[in-house]
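DM between two lab members

TW: hey, do you still have the K-box domain-containing protein entry open?
JB: yeah, one sec
JB: this one, 104 aa:
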Amino acid sequence: MQQVIERHNLHSENLGKMDQPSLELQLENSTSYTMSSNEIEEKTLELRKIKGEELHGMDIEELQKLEKVLEVGLSRVLETKGERFLDEITVLQRKGAQLMAENQ
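TW: and the structure you got?
JB:
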């Protein structure tokens, strides 16, 4: 009878421990959180530099790299904008031609 009670108690204790993550898992989660937190901090700083908000600690080489990145990005923006204008002009020309045909 005593053995049955001991097994029951042991089983009950183990069930309680199953709800708690292991120390190894807690450490892994903590490390993952720290890495994610550091990565977010780095990306936030990078974004602020791109926006021109955190330039005071940058040397000439870093500023030139940032300038090049921004020039490439601006070039893509201008190219896309030009394509959209051309698409819009094409659509308007078709509509104009259709209206001219309907009026004849």
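TW: got it. The chain is about 85% helix and 0% strand. The chain has a mean pLDDT of 85.
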